[in-house]
Amino acid sequence: MNSIFLRLYGGLLLALCFIGAITYAAVQLVNSYRSDIYREEMARGTFYLMAEGYQRYEPGERDRWSQVLSKLFSADIQLQSAGELELGYREKLHLEDGLVVMRLNDEKGYADILFQLPGESEYITTRMTKVSEQQARATAVLVLNHLSHFPEDEWGQALARLQQHFGFPLSLVSRDDVPLDPEQEQRLNRREVVIGLDDSTRSDSSIRIYAPVAQTGKLLVIGPLSLFDQFPMELLLVAGALSLLAVALATYLQVSPLQRRLKQLDQAVSQLGSGDLGAYANIEGNDAIGQVAATFNGMTAHIRRLIESQREMTRAVSHELRTPVARLRFGLEMLADIESAELRREKLNALDHDIEQLDQLIDEILTYARLEQGTPNIEFKPVLLGELCEQLRDELETICGDTVITVECDQPTLEVEAEERYLHRVLQNLVTNALRYAGSQIVMVVDGDEDQVVIHVDDNGPGIPEHERERVFKPFARLDKSRHRASGGYGLGLSIVKRIVDWHGGDIRVDESPMGGARFTVILPRSQQGQHVLGRVNG
Fold first, then answer.
1. DSSP letter string, 157-201
2. DSSP 87-106
3. What are phi and psi of 100, to 5 degrees?
4. What percent of the chain has pLDDT over 90?
5. Residues 258 and 498: beta-carbon distance below 8 Å
6. Taking 60 as the threshold, does the pLDDT of residue 538 lie above it?
7. Is 493 helix (H, G, I), strand (E, B) or coil?
8. Which segment, 8-12, 39-43, 148-152, is predicted with the most confidence on average?
9. 483 contacts 423 by C-beta, under 8 angstroms
């Protein structure tokens, strides 16, 4: 998951799935609520008329009205008390407000409908499985029954008062004003209730109920009753808008961190471009941006180190060259005044020694500068460490004087993958450095296991103070502040060793030797698989 593409589009895909699920659940919830409201509004007026009929009867005679209603609606309609119904708190509030309460049972496909008689503690209850034409006709019959209790000239007012209990229009119109087909006309002549369906489009499908009003030539028109639309345009528009906003928010949350990290990287690059070598991209993560930031930080650190190294080299070279050049100039001036051939020869030998010292210094400087350019193409091959150490001991035998160099290797066949030429340079620099300070003995100890090899170079000299041990690996760093030739080298040998060891993916440190002097320890991996790649990046 380090790819920006996978992280971005994977995150957006998860966000879209989540938003889709939330949107679907929200639409279903809203539709469920709308459906409940729709059913209650459709039934409220009908049950109000039922309750009005009950209240026209004496309490002992209300069973007669229950029988009439049950036959009219083809459903068992009766009165029950609150104790029999076990009403909930919400149901009580709705019923007291004159609303219809429906207890849906989706598994068995029916609904228990409750309505409270106004001002009484009894409730109309019935169980219905579906909405049918018979219920619509029964509602029309109840409305006509309600109007029959008023004079004809008050029907309009009575219908207007009744309208507030219905969720759909009620009106009285002339029969001639209603366009009906011949079959509907015949049914009206037979004093039947007629249902007309208008389904011109799915969005505005509706039905109307027509009932003849006695011999007045008028029709009671109930409706239009709009069919319940699961997904009205308004709801879809709101859901779509909210989904788009959620997608936009999810996209912002995905892209914003990437944009912020890229902006930080751009600021760091601009800072470096303006000459500020302290630029640092503080960006974490293992994705592509994090890897670029890590590479950038490594690059700036390498640039700072190179520039600082060059500055140190410039200062050190100017100092190191000044002494032999001054001696050469002084020697040449003296050579002109020397008449003795023997003295002249001695002075020429001294001048030749100074030139040789200059040559060595320049060679060391060029070697260090070449190593600082980066990791060269190293060809790793198996190297026998014991054999290499013994070879080095034999090579230095002529210059070691009274100092004894010993090799201790319990595993003669111990091998390490390395560039033999550079590894020889590491050991040579460590031993020649030890020769400058050793009292009488230098020991090279070789050991290892399956993963790594360890090489110790011990001497019995004065050792290195603990607070100076890190500094000895820096270029031109010497513990002797006098910089006299007798103090040893030019301060580049150990920095070259440190660089080569880094190329091999190893480590070098200096401690106190069991012999009392200094112990330089080189730790190298047995196998270079993957190590040289890391070395190239860090180099």
1. HHHHHHHTT-SS-EEEEEGGGS---HHHHHHHHTT--EEEEE-SS
2. --HHHHHHHHTT--EEEEET
3. -90, 140
4. 14
5. no
6. no
7. helix
8. 148-152
9. no
Work out the mean pLDDT of the chain and round it to a whole number.
81
484 φ, ψ (degrees, to nearest 5):
-80, 150
The single residue listed with the structure tokens 């910089």 is 483
Residues 54 and 458: their CA atoms lie apart, in Å, by 115
Q: Is the pLDDT of residue 34 over 90?
A: no
Residue 118 one-letter amino acid: P
Mean local confidence (pLDDT), 404-432: 90
Nearest to 364 by CA among 485, 475, 509: 475
**Mind listing the pLDDT tens digit for each residue in 397-410?**
878 888 999 999 99
Amino acid at 186: Q
Residue 224: asked if its preceding bond is cis (omega within 30°), the reply is yes
Q: Is the pLDDT of residue 33 over 70?
A: yes
The C-alpha angle with vertex 343 and arms to 338 and 347, in degrees rounded to 5, equals: 85
Vertex 295, ends 292 and 298: CA angle to 5°? 150
Q: State how far the Cα of 439 lies from the Cα of 435, in Å rounded to an integer.
A: 8
CB of 443 within 8 A of CB of 406? yes
Q: What DSSP assignment string belongs to 222-239?
A: EEEEEPP-SS-HHHHHHH
pLDDT tens track for 76-93: 999 998 888 888 888 888
Q: Which residues contact 23 (CB under 8 A, 6 or more apart)?
A: 239, 242, 243, 246
Task: Supply the pLDDT for residue 483.
Answer: 35
Q: At what angle do helices 493-503 and 531-538 cross, to 10 degrees?
A: 130
For 532, phi then psi, to 5°, come to: -70, -30
Query: Do 427 and 396 touch, CB atoms closer than 8 A?
Result: no
Q: 76 CB contacts (<8 Å, ≥6 apart)?
A: 70, 126, 127
Q: Alpha helices, DSSP H only, in 209-287? A: 233-273
Q: Three-state SS for 131? A: coil
What whole-number distance in Å separates Cα of residue 507 and Cα of residue 154? Answer: 108
